[in-house]
Design brief:
With 475 residues, the protein is an alpha+beta fold. Among the domains are: 48 residues, no CATH class; 119 residues, Tetrahydropterin Synthase, Chain A (2-Layer Sandwich), CATH 3.30.479; 75 residues, no CATH class. The strands form three sheets. Strands 6, 7, 8 and 9 form a four-stranded antiparallel sheet that branches. The protein has a three-stranded antiparallel sheet with strand order 3-2-5, covered by helices on one side. Strands 1-4 form a two-stranded antiparallel ribbon. α3 packs across α5. The N and C termini lie far apart (161 Å).
Length: 475
């Protein structure tokens, strides 16, 4: 079912397109330069400026041109004027079909089936007949001198005949008029001779007047030249005198101006120096004033900054410090109460601990005292051999301490000159020996005791030390 519908729609569209194509072929349009004459079924009608459908077989359509027709009107036979002079006239005519419907129908009746040449031939015959009649009514002089009048009479004469054919004469212009007897040529000779004569007379009179005026002009020129020379010499003399006076006055004026200028220049220089000094003082004063104003402004800025910082300090630090102080006081009071409670709680234990520590210290001191007594008794037993042993056992440490700076030396270069035992490596060991030999002197300097005296006080080897008396007795 849908397929049949689409087929029907397609056929309808195709039929519509064929109908429109047929109507387009039947529709005839008339341009602005033509008119369509449609005759047959419905009678004769004129179509101009639009279109119309021309039905085939029952109507016929033909075009009728409304364009301007231009053609020459030149009769082959001579035309005779009012004076009987045979002339040949060539003219150009501009004719067209009138634009109204009645004139178009009239023109279609006259020329619709004729060609352009046949139509122009008929019109030319009518125009030549009227031209022949008009030329016979005029003289050669009128034809030659008034061609516009001939054209006007042609348009007026032909208007009725052209209107009967549905036409109108747009213009009619005479191109050329000539004759075989040179009438037109001779017609102008009297005028030419007269004009030539008048021209020769006028030229002679002009030459005469020119000669007279030239002579008068030369005389006046000579007189004027003489007067001009006299006046020139007088003017030159007066001018030279005036120039000399002017030069003298100029020199005087220059000297006066120079003097005045120098005075004014000197005054201006002095005034400039004075003004420069004044301006310099003003500049310095203004600079000082500006610096003072700047300093005042800086002071004000600093004061404002100090005030701002004070307010900021008050707003930030002092208030916070006050809050912190109150907090610390509160915490301190709480800590005080806590410590007092703890102190009261640990007082007894601390006292007991102190008493125990004192007892320990006492016992420890008593033990150290006994140890010192034992050590003293042991020192009393020392003799020279023990002292010497102590000195000798401590001597390597002393020598090591003295030689420790040499350990920081990266490299030693020994230059030997062969000077006895104090040369080469022996010099280094000799120096170390000398440094070790200086230890007793260093000991005596530091302790203030002579080592020989101290060793003399030590018990000799083999002597027995005296035992201390018991129970506090003396020895």
């Amino acid at each position: 079912m849908p397929t049949e519908i689409w087929v029907i729609v397609g056929l309808c569209v195709l039929g519509l397109l064929l109908l429109m194509s047929s109507l387009a072929r039947l529709y005839r349009k008339a341009g602005p330069h033509e008119a369509l004459i449609v005759y047959g079924f419905g009678g004769t009608r004129v179509v101009k400026g639009h279109g119309a459908i021309v039905w085939p077989m029952v109507q016929v359509c033909r075009e009728l041109s409304l364009e301007l027709m231009s053609f020459d009107v030149a009769p082959q036979q001579d035309l005779y004027t009012k004076q009987g002079v045979a002339v040949t006239v060539e003219a150009v005519a501009q004719i067209k079909v009138k634009s109204d419907v009645e004139s178009i129908l009239t023109a279609s009746e006259q020329f619709l089936t004729k060609t352009d040449q046949e139509r122009e031939g008929l019109i030319r015959l009518v125009m030549e007949g009227h031209l022949r009649g008009i030329i016979g009514q005029l003289t050669v002089e009128e034809i030659v001198k008034q061609p516009e009048m001939v054209g006007e009479r042609m348009r007026a004469t032909c208007a009725d005949d052209m209107s009967k054919m549905g036409l109108e004469v747009i213009s009619f212009t005479i191109k050329e008029v000539r004759d075989k007897n040179e009438y037109i040529t001779n017609m102008g000779k009297p005028d030419v001779a007269r004009i030539k004569r008048d021209a020769d007379v006028a030229a002679a009179e002009a030459e005469r007047d020119t000669a007279i005026k030239r002579a008068l002009a030369q005389r006046e020129s000579a007189v004027a030249r003489a007067q001009a020379d006299q006046e020139r010499v007088l003017a030159e003399t007066l001018s030279q005198a005036k120039q000399a006076e002017a030069q003298r006055d100029l020199e005087v004026k220059k000297a006066q101006y120079l003097e005045v200028t120098k005075k004014q220049q000197a005054q201006a220089d002095k005034a400039y120096d004075i003004q420069a000094n004044v301006m310099q003082q003003q500049v310095i004063a203004e600079s000082v004033r500006v610096q003072q104003v700047e300093k005042e402004g800086q002071v004000k800025v600093q004061e404002a900054e100090i005030a701002r910082r004070e307010k900021e300090l008050i707003a930030t630090v002092l208030k916070q410090a006050e809050i912190e102080r109150q907090r610390i006081e509160t915490l301190a009071e709480a800590e005080k109460q806590r410590l007092m409670a703890e102190a009261e709680g640990h007082a007894s234990s601390i006292r007991q601990q102190g008493e125990a520590e004192a007892e320990i210290i006492f016992k420890k001191g008593e033990a150290e005292a006994k140890a010192m007594n034992v050590k003293a008794e042991a020192f009393q037993e020392y003799n020279q051999a023990a002292v010497i042993d102590k000195l000798l056992t401590g001597l390597p440490e002393v020598v090591k301490a003295l030689a420790s700076p040499l350990a920081n030396v990266d490299r030693i270069t020994v230059v030997s000159t062969g000077n006895g035992d104090a040369a080469g490596l022996n010099k280094i060991t000799g120096d170390l020996t000398k440094m070790a030999a200086q230890v007793p002197a260093l000991f005596e300097t530091l302790t203030g005791m002579n080592m020989g005296d101290m060793l003399g006080k030590v018990r000799q080897i083999g002597d027995k030390a005296a035992k201390p008396p018991e129970n506090g007795g003396t020895k």
